[in-house]
């Protein structure tokens, strides 16, 4: 069994997240992908909507894909939601299963600022996916990765589909190029604030939830 772990604030979840997860699931033949909305993220606190709404929207968005699951693992813990604790818990739940932590390039580059970062990168394998405005060659600035600049640049030029190397601590990291979908939660929140349409950027059920609960208005 191979399981993908996709964490995020999902503020709100959108087609950029969903399509990226589907690309990964299909290419690596994952049994399922578990989406983990962060209850109390230590770093991403700006414009952060109440976790109950973010959880509900994620749940609505995932209902149409039987390979996607939501986890309330971070809702059962008190205090800040640290990824290292989440991954440790998941490792003990899914003992003997290969777990892949799925992240965009932007998020992977932020890991050094996370709690117990070096421990975190030794817990599971990683799949790092394309994200608009970021290049795979940017991964060379990460203190955890030793990689061929040439190969990362080939990913950026679409001459390679994926590139596998190891992280400090010996876990593997797969840099995986996916079609770019230039949607961000920040842009969606801005559009709602400005009274603009968010149609086709996220599932209709999530759009209706945002509208009927008057979220992101102020
Ligand atoms: P915000 O705009 O609020 O910062 P975000 O979408 O960047 O939102 P998260 O919801 O925390 O933030 O993202 C969860 C994960 O999804 C991260 O690993 C991020 O890199 C990835 N991700 C977000 N949007 C995309 C996208 N359009 N394409 C690929 N990956 C994405």
Q: Unreliable segments (pLDDT under 50, ≥5 consecutive)?
A: none
Bound chemical compounds: adenosine-5'-triphosphate
Estimate what percentage of residues fall within beta strands: 15-25%
Mean pLDDT: 95
Radius of gyration: 17 Å
- Report the structural category: alpha/beta
Main β-sheet, in a few words? 7 strands, mixed
Strands, count? 7
Gap between N and C termini: 44 Å
Shape: globular
Adjacency order of strands in the biggest sheet:
3-2-1-4-5-7-6
Elements, N to C (H/E): EHEHEHEHHEHEEHH
State the helicity in percent bands: 25-40%
Separate helix tally? 8
Question: What would you say about this model in short?
Answer:
The chain has helices at residues 15-27, 51-62, 83-93, 105-110, 117-120, 149-156, 185-193, 204-212; strands at 2-8, 32-37, 68-70, 98-104, 125-129, 162-166, 172-176. The chain is globular.
Provide an overview of this structure.
Strand 2 (32-37), helix 2 and strand 3 (68-70) form a beta-alpha-beta unit. Helices cover 33% and strands 17% of the residues. The protein has a seven-stranded mixed beta sheet with strand order 3-2-1-4-5-7-6, with helices on both faces. The chain has helices spanning 15-27, 51-62, 83-93, 105-110, 117-120, 149-156, 185-193, 204-212; strands at residues 2-8, 32-37, 68-70, 98-104, 125-129, 162-166, 172-176. Helix 2 (51-62) runs antiparallel to helix 8 (204-212). The structure holds adenosine-5'-triphosphate. Adenosine-5'-triphosphate binds at residues 8-11, 16-17, 20, 103-104, 106-107, 129, 131, 181, 183-186.
């Amino acid at each position: 069994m191979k399981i993908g772990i996709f964490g995020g604030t999902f503020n709100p979840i959108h087609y950029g997240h969903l399509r990226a997860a589907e690309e990964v699931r299909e290419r690596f033949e994952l049994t399922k992908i578990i989406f983990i909305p962060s209850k109390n993220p230590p770093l991403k606190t700006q414009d952060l909507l109440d976790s109950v709404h973010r959880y509900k929207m994620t749940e609505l968005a995932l209902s149409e894909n039987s390979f996607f699951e939501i986890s309330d693992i971070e809702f059962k813990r008190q205090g800040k939601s640290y990824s290292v604790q989440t991954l440790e818990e998941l490792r003990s739940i899914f003992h003997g299963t290969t777990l892949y932590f799925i992240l965009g390039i932007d998020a992977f580059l932020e890991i050094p600022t996370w709690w117990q970062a070096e421990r975190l990168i030794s817990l599971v394998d990683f799949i790092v996916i394309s994200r608009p405005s970021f290049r795979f060659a940017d991964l060379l600035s990460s203190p955890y990765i030793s990689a061929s600049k040439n190969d990362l640049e080939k990913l950026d030029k679409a001459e390679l589909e994926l590139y596998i190397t190891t992280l400090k601590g010996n876990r593997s990291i797969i840099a995986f190029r996916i079609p770019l979908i230039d949607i961000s939660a920040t842009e969606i929140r801005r559009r709602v604030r400005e009274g603009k349409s968010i149609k086709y950027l996220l599932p209709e059920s999530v759009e209706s939830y945002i509208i009927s609960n008057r979220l992101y208005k102020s």
